[in-house]
Each structure stands twice: as structure tokens, then as C-alpha cells.
Amino acid sequence: MPNPAAAETIPLHPLTLPRLAKASTATVATLLYKRGYHNAFVQGIAPLTAGRAPMVGPAFTLRYIPARPDTDPIGAFREPDHPQRVAVETCPEGAVLVMDCRQDASAASAGSILLTRLQLRGAAGVVTDGGIRDVAGAAALEMPVFAAGPSAPTNLTKHHAIDIGLPIACGGVAVYPGDIILGDGDGVMVIPRHLAGEVAAESVGMERFEAFVLEEVLRGVPIIGLYPPTDPDTKARFEVWQARGEV
């Protein structure tokens, strides 16, 4: 089977990212499930800081393979073309740097200095299935950071940065450059770029309906017939609710 079409051939509607920024990862998970995508939630990671605004942006990828003494001495960082450093300096504004560490958090994939640089360059966020060092500084950033957890050892201990801008795996999920990454308190969803527009558009109505459902539950309405709305009266009440402008 061929790889998905290149990101540059799939333009995003101007409303796609703003709509997704108002959608939860739970909503997107359901919408992708309906389309047959059952493995789009990045496993084993969490936001370093709770309560941040949702993270959304196209994926910019960096892949690590296992380190070796001959390829990853401490002097490797002096190389001007070191892929980790190059990724930090080339990640586009508004993009999410997604790092494939083979779900190995026993060493860091980045630290607060590099993450600060990414924030200053306008990155939308960072996702890694590896560790993060200097985690207090990283967690204090305004830019959202999702990781497998704190890890003091430098990436050279376990991770050899090998390439940028290619398909990767992160937390067991396939990530192609340009896929749309959405992160919130539940974690991170990977939205195939060609589906991002329709998922974003459908999320608007789904979020609106679930806001109505929550109000109904809080006033004591039983869940059967309400969610999903199999009772015709549920749909009628929802239309009235929308007409009142409670959106």
C-alpha cells in the first residue's frame, strides 16, 4: 500500500485548526473510530503541565534509534548537523515536534533549553514517547509538552537521532509529517491530514450535542435514550436548546 499523500498536497481549510482547538481528544477519538481509525491515541504519555489550552498543529517528525558508543559520544552535540539540534532549528512555526523514542523513557529526548528554543521559535508543542530532562523548566513553559515522564540521562545515553521529516511511530501510533496533532488533558490524538477537515467540521456539532447532554444529565435525565439520542424527544429537546442559543 502507498504512503498517504504528501502534506503539501493536502491544504488545510482555514477553519480546521481553530475548530480542532475547541474539540476534545475524546471527541476526535470517537470521530476517528467511526472512520475505522482505532489506533490514533498516543500511548504512555501525558502533559507535563495540567490545565493548559489544547495543543493543535501539524506534525514535524524526528526519529531516534538505539544509541551506540561509536555514534553517540558526548561530543556528538558539537556537530552542526546533529539531527536533534537541526530539528529544533527547523521546526516550522505553529508545528508540533513529534519524537519517536521507541517508547523508551529511560533517557531524555530533549530538555528545557531546547524546548525553550522551540517555544521562542513559535512551535505549537512537543510530543515524545521518551523522557524529558530538566522537567521543572520544561513544565513551566507556555508551550505544551507531552512526554512519557521525567528522565535525567541525556538522549545520547539511549537515543541516536537519525532523521527528520519522515514517517515515525510515537507511542505506538503511525505519524506522517503534516498529520494534525491534538493534545489536551487526556493525551494526544494523531489525525490523518486528509481527514482533518471533515473531523474538525463534525466535531463542532458533536461538542455542542455533548454540552446539551451534560446539562440533561445534571438535571436528572436518564442516559438511556439520551446518549446516544435514540429517544425522538431527545432530539426535539436538543433543537429547542440550540434555538435558545445555549451553544
TrEMBL record:
Pfam families: RraA-like (PF03737). Keywords: Magnesium, Metal-binding. Substrate binds at residues 111-114, 133. This is Ribonuclease activity regulator RraA. InterPro entries: RraA/RraA-like (IPR005493), RraA/RraA-like_sf (IPR036704). Mg(2+) binds at residue 134. Its cofactor is Mg(2+). GO terms for molecular function: metal ion binding.
